[in-house]
Design goal:
39% of the residues lie in helices and 28% in strands. It is an alpha+beta fold. Strand 2, helix 2 and strand 3 form a beta-alpha-beta unit.
Length: 88
Amino acid sequence: MTASIDQLLKVLREVIAPVIRADGGEVYVVAVEPNHLSLHLAGRYAGCPGAPLVVRGVIEPAVRSVAPTARLDVSCGIKVPEGASLVS
């Protein structure tokens, strides 16, 4: 099943971003395509050893709920990739 870009962005705005912000982090969309989402975590997540737990426990399940076969790439760090958009 291929997810639509709208479905991926909706789960990002309504589920993932609020959780990340509540913990002092920022989430950026690096790329979004049907069945592929690339994100970057910054703020408190830049260099945070707990970031992989958030990816596995929050981000992956939320994305899988709308796109079970989607490829998900998540990077973390102070330097935000060029062209990435902050999710507000």
